[in-house]
Amino acid sequence: MSARDSILATLRRNSPPPADHPLPEPAVLGEADASPERFSASLLQMGGTMLDRQQGATLDQAIALRFPKPGLMIRSLVPEATGTVRIADLPTPQAAEPVDVTIVRAAFGIAETGSIFLSEAQLHLNAIAHLTQHMVVLLDPAQITANMHTAYLRPEFHTARYGVLMSGPSATADIQGVLIRGAQGVRSLTVCFAPE
Amino acid sequence: MKEKPVNHAAAAVAFIADKPHLDFHDARLWDMRQKRDAQMHLLPEWQDLRSRASAIKEHALANLADYLEEFERNAKSNGIHVHWAADGADHNRIVGEILEARGAKTLIKSKSMVTEECDLRPYLAARGVTVTETDLGERIQQLDDQLPSHIVVPSVHKLTSDVARIFARSYGTDPNADDPHQLAEAQRLAARPVILHADAGMTGGNFFVAETGTFVVCTNEGNADLSATVPGVHIATIGIERVVPRMADLGVFIRLLSRSALGSPITQYTSHFRGPQDGSEMHVVLVDNGRSARLGMADFWTSLKCIRCGACMNTCPVYRRSGGLSYGAVYSGPIGAIIDPTFNERKYSTLPYASTMNGSCTNVCPVKINIHEQLYKWRQVLVEHHQMPFVKREIMHMAGKLMGQPKLYRAAINGTETALSTLPRFALYNWLNPWGKNRELPAPVKETFHSWYRRNRPTAGRATPETVKTETKA
């Protein structure tokens, strides 16, 4: 018998009575506030930042103010910003590694946790979300969902092959409990509300 | 050959002797527990979430074979290769074959307790594959040739100076570095080129979803997503018990996991893998390794509900003051003490005794595993199976006789009080009294409760069973 069949047979033999353990209906619990204010507050708690954008300033200008160091490689995956390098020049993870700032639009955000959702539909090359040093994320305030329960009702979880909820930048507290924002993935994550 | 039982108590003695490490370890884990409490108090629905999480897991386990088949069907139709491993050897062989078929010589890995269970790294090393752990804490442990001491924070028993020493040896950094930021940056810089040029990547999985064929990885550092998305091959090793029926069920578990583990509302990364990216391969290895047998153990099957948050470890006074390595097992702390004996009953026969039976582990468990009751049950099982050290067995034997005979018991208790107040230390603290190691015996009392009661309640003895019962309740 294959490992598969023997595992399944043992499970069927050993399982507690299924009738004693019914499946509860899917739950939608908790705070239902889906406001941009709640999202921002949660994002800040997770170590993320909101983009400071003066009235009338273009997205490129606001990003230049956020990342003032000259000569940065800025790669835009959105029509609202131009960046400094062309997407076509970075077809592989190895080529994309030196990118400093990546600008991308999230499919949606979650107010409870300040999370943004990205998939291959937004990223094209999934690794870019983790190789880039910094990330600027455009989020349509109309696409903020209240909490994790409402989030999992979104269709993206049934269509994306890779879907990542990023909640602030990468972080670690593995050395003597000291919280360090910017571990191995993005060093910073900045969200800009931008209706689509 | 029979393996010797882990000497948890002796290892704990060594841990306690090092005060700076002990103090930090105790305080750090208690801080995690307090942060967890703060998150819990923010959610009025917390207990509802726990009940639902428990019910969903129990349902999934009671129908596990069906859900595994459903997952396999959906994952395959999304282009994921699904493998089944009966045990650790099976798992390692499968991973080895995937790598060999692609000529892969370098593997980058994010943290996975199941691969620790299977002892994957030495297996692959013997076959010429270089395995690099990419999680900071796990990498520290790999470089120091130690098991992770905690399932969420693998190197929590180490201080910055320990990490500086290890990194100096392996990365050539300053051995006197005292800034964790500097050391974390060293790890980032050392890991990047390895990640960029690795032949294959490996992750664990916190959950998998039968309905969609998705698996979910919850992490903080970004290394798991790098390991999964940069190389062209992604292998995920997952225990068969981690299935949930529906995508909608994930909301309950994601809300509980990081709040229980670290006291943060969510992990920085919650990654859903439903199929390979264009031009890449994705493999899932479903690992049994004793789980299907455990499902048949009436008293212990609910330990399979565990989502590996580590809350029971953080709250456990014994774990906090003995350290994960003292358990001598892949899984430590209260959850380790109830699942390790299912892997090797003799070797881990001492672990269910590493508890004060205070029940805090059960109270913080997000999926409501009755951990302290299972600890108690394991003690019974181990005694029945004669897995008890000679001295403890004899003491229990004598105690059983004493407690079964009230008159004898009272005489002995009076004698004990005399002994405690008159005997010299060497007669009280020796190998016949394991309880007295590192602990002071209770101060002798002038009078036992029983003799006080007889003196002050002249009607005692005439009480009906009903009134006794009521008094006990009050």
UniProtKB/TrEMBL annotation, chain A:
It comes from the Bacteria. InterPro entries: FTHF_cligase-like_sf, LUD_dom, NagB/RpiA_transferase-like. Residues 1-29 are annotated as: Disordered. It holds the Pfam family LUD_dom. Residues 94-191 form the LUD domain. Residues 15-25 have a biased composition (Pro residues). This is L-lactate dehydrogenase complex protein LldG.
UniProtKB/TrEMBL annotation, chain B:
This is L-lactate dehydrogenase complex protein LldF. The lineage of its organism: Bacteria, Pseudomonadati, Pseudomonadota, Alphaproteobacteria, Acetobacterales. PANTHER family: LACTATE UTILIZATION PROTEIN B. Transmembrane segments: none annotated. One of its GO terms (molecular function) is 4 iron, 4 sulfur cluster binding. Keywords: 4Fe-4S, Electron transport, Iron, Iron-sulfur, Metal-binding, Repeat, Transport. One of its GO terms (biological process) is lactate metabolic process. InterPro entries: 4Fe4S_Fe-S-bd, 4Fe4S_Fe_S_CS, FTHF_cligase-like_sf, Helical_ferredxn, LUD_dom, LutB/LldF, NagB/RpiA_transferase-like.
